[in-house]
Amino acid sequence: MSERVVITGMGTINPLGHTVAETWEAATAGVSGVGPITLFDPERLKVHIAAEVKNFDPTTVINRKEARRMSRFEQLALVAAHEAIAQAGLQVEKEDPYRIAIIVASAIGGLEKLEENVIIAVERDPSRISPFVIPMMMANGAASLIAMHYGFWGPSFSTVSACASGNDAIGVAWNMVRSGMVDVAITGGSEATVTFTGVGAFDRLGALSRRNDDWSMTPQPFDKNRDGLVMGEGAGILVLESERHARARGAEILAELAAYGATADAFHVTAPHPEGAHGAQAILLALQTAGVSPDEVDYINAHGTATQLNDQAETKAIKRAFGPRAYHIPISSTKSMTGHMMGSTGALEAIFCVQAIRHGVVPPTIHYQTPDPECDLDYIPNEAREWPVRVAVSNAFGFGGHNAILVLRAYQ
Q1: Is 303 marked active-site?
Q2: What is the CATH number of domain 260-409?
Q3: 163 is catalytic
Q4: Which one of 82, 163, 278, 402 is the catalytic residue?
Q5: With the CA atoms of 381, 324, 347 and 170 taken in that order, what torsion angle do they form, in degrees rounded to the nearest 10?
Q6: How far apart are CA 401 and CA 403, in angstroms?
Q7: Which helix (H) or strand (E) holds 74?
Q8: What whole-number distance in Å separates Cα of residue 292 and Cα of residue 140?
Q9: Residues 350, 275, 335, 343, CA torsion sign
Q10: What is the C-alpha to C-alpha distance for residues 52 and 33, in angstroms, rounded to an integer?
Q11: CA quadruple 179, 346, 237, 24: dihedral sign
């Protein structure tokens, strides 16, 4: 018999805030985390804006010596995990450490450390390459460091599926808890790709907004005049447990993670399937697994990157999955505020879904001005809305055709 999987802790650090509470307050107020790039000099690039984490000091959680030997995405993950584990009230000494999994995604890993050391090798001397560059750049670094920091001995690894990585990590963790393989899973994602190479490469793909002088109005998901995504960074971590385990230790249950569905477009290395057919199937698989009908869904947190192709394909996927009901479900792209945090975005958006369930408020899609005939659903334009949410769906679609869907619902 499958275990019910519940969420008992959440943590985040992102362009809107350093905690879940700060982030939720900013998101429901429609605050933008976008601004001029400060992490490096972008002068030679055509994109000068990003959604950066502000005033980040990893030594609030990690000692200074250890922090120097970590990349930024690893530091962000540990800070977010600290908040999530504290909220969950997990006492490591009272747990079986072999039954705690750590599944933390990163689509790219420690890009800034790779970039720094390539420059050192080429321009200076290969012998000056840091001996820590490999553990700082590897995508599984965040998961392994969380395990070491807390003494968790269960399965520990990263999922890598581009922008669907965070949802896939949570889905894999959900399956582990659901099957009884582990009692607890620390899961989510972390990313820090606001670097010279990261921004330059994504811009060469034609994916980024270039509104350097009008950054207060970008990105514009689902808007007719959208011109691309804005790079973001940050981490989101959730603590999943079996209902049995959470209740036995008296934990507060925040919500239930009811299902995960995944498919592949098998269509193009970067473009989504133009009809959203396989994304729709992932949604339907998740709903079926959760035992939820399309009519029961109260809110969708969309992938909503603000690229022309993604927003059209996702709108079609939602219509295919929900039929006429699609026009009556509030939908928001919180990337309009956080930017696109790549492999960690899905984790933060799952947190937004939990908060919507708990507070009866759905966050807005800001910067929405001009309706697009191809994107004609209810995208909660510009202002948060009081709205009772019992069941929420979180969409994630990644380069390579990865579709990963989570269904969350109020715990009863």
Answers
A1: yes
A2: 3.40.47.10
A3: yes
A4: 163
A5: 180
A6: 6
A7: helix 72-88
A8: 33
A9: positive
A10: 7
A11: negative
Residues in the chain: 412
CA 374 to chain centre: 26
| Rounded-to-integer distance, Cα 77 and Cα 234, Å | 8
Half-sphere exposure (CA, 13 Å, Cβ side) for 138?
A: 12
- Cα Rg for the chain, rounded, in angstroms? 20
If you ran DSSP here, which 8-state letter would residue 273 be given?
P
Domain 5-248 fold is Peroxisomal Thiolase; Chain A, domain 1 (3.40.47)
Same-fold call for 5-248 versus 260-409: yes
Catalytic residue among 340, 353, 375, 402: 340
Going residue by residue through the chain, which has 412 residues, state the pLDDT in tens, using 9 for 90 and above: 789 999 999 999 999 999 999 999 999 999 999 999 999 999 999 999 999 999 999 999 999 999 999 999 999 999 999 999 999 999 989 999 999 999 999 999 999 999 999 999 999 999 999 999 999 999 999 999 999 999 999 999 999 999 999 999 999 999 999 999 999 999 999 999 999 999 999 999 999 999 999 999 999 999 999 999 999 999 999 999 999 999 999 999 999 999 999 999 999 998 999 999 999 999 999 999 999 999 999 999 999 999 999 999 999 999 999 999 999 999 999 999 999 999 999 999 999 999 999 999 999 999 999 999 999 999 999 999 999 999 999 999 999 999 999 999 999 9
* Strands (E) located in 334-410: 361-362, 385-386, 391-398, 402-409
CA atoms of 147 and 132, how far apart (whole Å): 18
The single residue of 303, 353, 367, 375 carrying the catalytic annotation is 303
Every domain of the chain and the residues it spans: 5-248, 260-409
User: How many other C-beta atoms are found inside a 10 Å radius of the C-beta of residue 367?
Assistant: 24
